[in-house]
């Protein structure tokens, strides 16, 4: 019987790992430069957490969560995390961290799970990287998160990208816009898709997010024209900060994001290198979420990006694995134990190395040493074993010499014998 990976999952094999490391290293470096600290919430949470945070009418909650457990259990069911924002906020609130420090700037990088139809760059298990800046309503923090992601793209080698931003207003001005939008949609409602008809009553803002009816709804009143003066001032401050940082953007009234917790600033990064499904990252402000989840009434903003999507847009090759410092070679079978001891001791000295584990001939072992890219071959034969020495062969120059272990260690480390 043969086995295949489950639909919507994928293996990251050794030849792909360097590109993943390039993106992960670039992300971690940028996160730290911007003053963000790492958080690692659990892979699964109580299902109700996502209902409370993401919203009952979102696609994630309605269609895309992997849920398990007994619904009759008093504790409720569990769901694999479809995103990391709810778990991160829950951890902050549960840990009482907001009482210890005013603003927390956190980053994460790990697997998430959505039961959606697999397509290019989208998987049922995927890797999400992102940030949450919790505890500030300052529009400069909105801009900071966008600048941060643009720096990650630059460091990872993504050249063709676009940032689109919008403001969807606060709770105070959204009620009026909801009625304006409903009045504009009502005459065309019969021509819209079933999803839009359902969203009309449950969450009319989501109609703006519909791709199927985008052409029909393209002239609907934009949210940004119906926001209050405070929200307008917030948006102007965000735009000014982006201009000061020389980060190009455009205002797009179609950007509303698919989650219920967003307020004011929302944004998306996309790349022409990805074709029709061009999204790289989505983010925005969520000033009510922490309070809704039992925490303080504080402002927050963040973004989340799919690593697989970024990898598709990355240019250039990642740096190859650093060559081994040495490769151990036993001239005869009796010397294999001595070679193994030497290899172990050199590794403990901080050097990288390997040896043959198939009991092959010296010729075959030297071929493996060549393929490994090792700088030196460390050979032990009967004479070397008897004298307590070894031969060190420079794989590029082809020269070799007999040395003690201590001399070999210093040469491999780059020092003088």
Task: Describe what this molecule looks like in 3D.
With 417 residues, the protein is α+β, with helices and mostly antiparallel strands. It has 2 domains: 17-170 and 227-313, BirA Bifunctional Protein, domain 2 (2-Layer Sandwich); 326-412, Anticodon-binding domain (Rossmann fold), CATH 3.40.50.800. Helices cover 35% and strands 20% of the residues. The chain has helices spanning 17-33, 47-54, 59-64, 85-94, 139-156, 171-185, 194-202, 229-244, 289-292, 307-313, 336-348, 362-372, 382-387, 405-412; strands at residues 37-38, 44-46, 67-68, 78-80, 104-113, 125-134, 162-167, 250-251, 263-270, 279-285, 300-306, 326-330, 353-355, 376-380, 390-394, 400-403. The strands form 3 sheets. An 8-stranded mixed beta sheet has the order 1-5-6-11-10-9-7-8, with helices on both faces. It has a 5-stranded mixed beta sheet with strand order 13-12-14-15-16, sandwiched between helices. A hairpin with an 8-residue loop joins strand 9 and strand 10 (279-285).
Summarize the structure.
With 417 residues, the protein is of the alpha+beta class. It has helices at 17-33, 47-54, 59-64, 85-94, 139-156, 171-185, 194-202, 229-244, 289-292, 307-313, 336-348, 362-372, 382-387, 405-412; strands spanning 37-38, 44-46, 67-68, 78-80, 104-113, 125-134, 162-167, 250-251, 263-270, 279-285, 300-306, 326-330, 353-355, 376-380, 390-394, 400-403.
List keywords for this structure.
Rossmann fold, alpha+beta, 8-stranded mixed β-sheet, 35% helix, BirA Bifunctional Protein, domain 2, elongated, 5-stranded mixed β-sheet, 2 domains
């Amino acid at each position: 019987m043969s086995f295949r990976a489950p639909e919507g999952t994928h293996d990251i094999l050794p030849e792909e790992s360097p590109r993943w490391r390039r993106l992960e290293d670039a992300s971690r470096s940028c996160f730290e430069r911007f003053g963000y600290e790492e958080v690692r919430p659990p892979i699964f949470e109580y299902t109700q957490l996502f209902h409370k945070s993401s919203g009952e009418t979102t696609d994630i909650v309605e269609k895309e969560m992997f849920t398990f457990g007994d619904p009759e259990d008093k504790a409720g069911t569990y769901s694999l995390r479809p995103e990391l924002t709810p778990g991160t906020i829950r951890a902050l609130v549960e840990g009482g961290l907001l009482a210890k420090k005013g603003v927390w700037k956190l980053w994460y990088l790990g697997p998430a799970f959505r039961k959606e139809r697999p397509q290019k760059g989208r998987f049922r298990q995927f890797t999400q990287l992102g940030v949450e800046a919790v505890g500030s309503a300052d529009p400069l923090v909105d801009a900071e998160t966008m600048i941060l992601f643009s720096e990650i793209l630059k460091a990872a080698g993504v050249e063709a990208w676009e940032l689109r931003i919008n403001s969807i207003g606060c709770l105070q001005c959204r009620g009026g816009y909801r009625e304006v939008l409903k009045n504009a949609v009502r005459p065309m409602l019969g021509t819209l898709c079933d999803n839009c008809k359902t969203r009309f009553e449950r969450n009319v803002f989501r109609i703006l997010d519909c791709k199927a009816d985008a052409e029909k709804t393209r002239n609907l009143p934009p949210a940004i024209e119906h926001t209050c003066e405070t929200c307008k001032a917030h948006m102007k401050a965000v735009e000014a900060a982006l201009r000061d940082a020389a980060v190009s953007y455009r205002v797009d009234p179609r950007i509303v994001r698919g989650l219920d917790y967003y307020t004011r600033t929302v944004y998306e990064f996309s790349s022409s290198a990805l074709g029709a499904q061009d999204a790289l990252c989505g983010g925005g402000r969520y000033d009510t979420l922490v309070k809704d989840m039992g925490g303080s009434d504080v402002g927050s903003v963040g973004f989340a990006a799919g690593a697989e999507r970024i990898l598709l847009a990355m240019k250039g090759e990642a740096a190859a694995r650093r060559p081994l410092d040495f490769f151990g070679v036993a001239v005869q079978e009796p010397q294999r134990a001595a070679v193994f001891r030497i290899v172990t001791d050199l590794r403990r000295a901080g050097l990288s190395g390997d040896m043959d584990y198939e009991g092959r001939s010296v010729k075959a072992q030297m071929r493996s040493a060549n393929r490994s890219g090792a700088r030196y071959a460390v050979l032990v034969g009967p004479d070397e074993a008897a004298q307590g020495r070894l031969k060190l062969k420079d794989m590029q120059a082809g020269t070799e010499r007999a040395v003690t272990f201590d001399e070999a260690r210093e040469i491999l480390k780059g020092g003088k014998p």
